[in-house]
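A favour, since you know our structure tokens better than I do. Would you make up a two-line entry for one protein for me to read? Write everything out right here, beneath this request.
=====
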Amino acid sequence: MSLQYLGLNEINGPLVVLDEVSGISYDEVAELHLEDGTERLGRVVEISGDKAVLQVFEGTKGLSLKNTKTKFLGRPMEMPLSEEVLGRVFNGAGKPIDGLGDIFPEKFADINGKPLNPVARTYPRNYIRTGISSIDCLMTLIRGQKLPIFSGSGLSHNKLAVQIVRQAQIAEDSGEKFAVVFAAMGVKNDVADYFRKSFEDSGVLQNVAMFLNLSNDPIIERILTPRCALTVAEYLAYEKNMHILVILTDMTSYAEALREFSSSKGEIPGRKGYPGYLYSDLASLYERAGIVNGAKGSVTQIPILTMPNDDITHPVPDLTGDITEGQIVLDRNLDQTGIYPPLSVLPSLSRLMKDGIGEGFTRSDHAAVSNQLFASYAKVQEARSLASVIGEEELSDTDKKYMEFGVYFEKYFINQGFDENRTIEETLDLGWDLLSVLPMSELDRVDEALLKEKYNPENAKRFTR
């Protein structure tokens, strides 16, 4: 028997309180019927005796304390699923907003996901090519990995996200299916339009499931957005055998919505006002990436977050770095010099990279090129620091070569056009050409046989023309 409760005991921000309720459970979904005949969804976020606190997805504006009717549905929030989700645009709560009607679902799934036995995971191998040299060569994205992008306010992370969606692919000859799930949280209308128009114009939208939560949408919807997106990703990966890349932007907006919601519940705040459970909440999202035993598909995540005041020790990037397997850091100084994408190479890394590159995956010399480029660019920073003290004219010939290498590396390797899609072969060959700017004696991360095969100072002359 389904009961309806008439009236509300209290309304506080996005929360409503009901008294004298029974037989309900945490996270259960409820329908709230308003006086004007419309209805809204909510979910149970707290139970204390016969008192229940509900989180209303569409906000509490217009609710009546006396005449609102509440009906509990006896299930958690679910997402309708079918392969039709590809090519569609949804709001943050998983409802279609592209004017093409509802999804005809094959099934419904709890947006919180299913508990996954860690033993059931398969170690991530093989890579996803983004077409961006600095990522593909130096911080390779591995299938099943979670690799966040740490950005700052005003940097080109939105542009980078669009380029990755447009260019990302697995090996074309593998015969395996690849798709993208894109979720934007707390974005302004013009940014949402930019994402949507970019995907439509480039023709990739048909291969993307897109979730848009705008900055003027209720914060509760923002908390649901990544969960709906990841539910779709898991369905396509584990039931439809597809390799899915999930891009979540901006996780800082998500964390701020969580902070606001926690404050409205009266919870004791932790660092910088964020709830004490921020770590476990972020982990519940990030850990939904991976590969499961017996499944042919995979879920790979690129969470994007903006660091307030470019502070990498801020709770959101700090905790994200603890949970994920590396990071890609954007650099404001590179951005101000006109370099795109402004990737800061030295603090960026991909911890799973070593097991998804090399012979059979990318190319046998990939690890050697990557290690040598990292080591050489680190010496560039040392030479620049020394030049700032004693002047560039006083540097040794070797240090001057490193200064020259640094300029070419940033101009030709890190910097690439928004529409430039480089293959892994082009990227690695470019890396060798740049290393040929340096004296052979300085390339100490490459074995002698490979060095004799690939080192060619003649190829480096194209940078000096």
Notes: The first strand starts at residue 4 and ends at 6.
